[in-house]
Design goal:
Length: 241
């Protein structure tokens, strides 16, 4: 566990040294703040003391921002050759992958923590369903973890950050949009199958305040699969070298 945290701190340091973290945080807060408080469908226009507008915006902004965060996690290491140097240390492939995952998750958690003033402000404006707010944040965290695991995987298979970004975005589009579109146009078991594959189905369920085991299994399964595929790809590279 200590080695995982060392790798995570190293990765976090890289994020902040290269301004990636600052750009992401400012952009995320800028987008979410503008649409939550100022845009035409903002909280004041809705006249409801909730954060549904914020959760809807964050659902899309994080979808695009996460591939930008993860694209360099492995791709840059592969391109610069520092992955070989890292692998000479007494760390396993799994520890490297999980360490990178933890670093990205910490950055997302920092971004979400910075939006807590939104919650406090809405609380001052009127009665808030605290449970739905907490599950809304939980939904964003699980969604982010899912796309981080996918982004790390695409970053392990290439040394080109742009390819890693576009690949993560392409895979994410299936979970974010396409499976839902197919499900809405299908009936019976086929529709149910694609509805289950759609990330929005499970995100919507959790963000409404319903924490179902099938939703948690869905998220944790994809997260675990993405990390395992990343480790497997990294292991194959080591054997090839």
């Amino acid at each position: 566990m200590n080695k995982i945290w060392i790798i995570a701190k190293r990765e976090l340091g890289t994020f902040f040294d290269s301004l990636t973290a600052y750009i992401m945080l400012v952009a995320f807060l800028g987008f979410s703040g503008f649409f939550t408080w100022l845009y035409g469908s903002d909280i004041f226009l809705r006249n409801q003391a909730d954060l549904q507008v914020f959760f809807n915006i964050a659902y899309w902004t994080l979808f695009f921002f996460i591939p930008a965060i993860t694209m360099r996690t492995m791709a840059e290491e592969n391109k610069s050759g520092t992955i070989e140097l890292l692998l000479t240390k007494s760390v396993s492939d799994w520890q490297i992958v999980v360490g990178k995952f933890v670093a990205c998750m910490v950055l997302i958690l920092i971004a979400l923590a910075l939006t807590l003033p939104y919650y406090l402000t809405v609380w001052k404006l009127g009665p808030v369903d605290h449970g739905s707010v907490l599950t809304g944040y939980l939904g964003l965290i699980l969604m982010s973890a899912t796309y981080i695991s996918i982004g790390i995987y695409t970053s392990t298979v290439t040394s080109n950050q742009i390819v890693a970004f576009l690949s993560a975005l392409l895979i994410g589009i299936f979970f974010h949009i396409i499976f839902d579109v197919i499900a809405s146009g299908s009936t019976g078991s086929i529709g149910a199958f694609f509805s289950y594959l759609s990330l929005s189905t499970h995100y919507d369920s959790i963000s409404r305040g319903v924490i179902d085991s099938k939703d948690l299994i869905y998220f944790f399964s994809i997260i675990f699969l993405g990390l395992v595929l990343s480790e497997t790809t990294l292991s194959k590279r080591n054997l090839a070298d």
